[in-house]
Amino acid sequence: MARIVVEVMPKPEILDPQGKAVAGALPRLGFTEFAAVRQGKRFELEVEGEANEEVLDQARKAASEVLSNPVIEDVVSVHWARES
């Protein structure tokens, strides 16, 4: 069964309180290498049947119309998952 990964992030101009909280916690936990954090969403869509470009196009459409809020979020990636 194939899987499509959709990644959504807040638009750059939108405040990200969760990312800011994580960025504040990292140095306290000894992770001082990171200057900033933005937190987003990841969706995994399993595909029954043939995995083709038409299905990937449908995933892109679902990402922009259902899985993200275009006012405050950007769909940054829609791609086939790598098999591990």
UniProtKB/TrEMBL annotation:
Pfam family, one: PurS
SUPFAM superfamilies cross-referenced by the UniProt entry: PurS-like
A biological process from GO: 'de novo' IMP biosynthetic process
EC number: 6.3.5.3
Catalytic activity: N(2)-formyl-N(1)-(5-phospho-beta-D-ribosyl)glycinamide + L-glutamine + ATP + H2O = 2-formamido-N(1)-(5-O-phospho-beta-D-ribosyl)acetamidine + L-glutamate + ADP + phosphate + H(+)
Top EC class for this record: ligase
One example GO MF annotation: ATP binding
Protein name, as recorded: Phosphoribosylformylglycinamidine synthase subunit PurS
Organism: Ruania alkalisoli
Encoding gene per record: purS
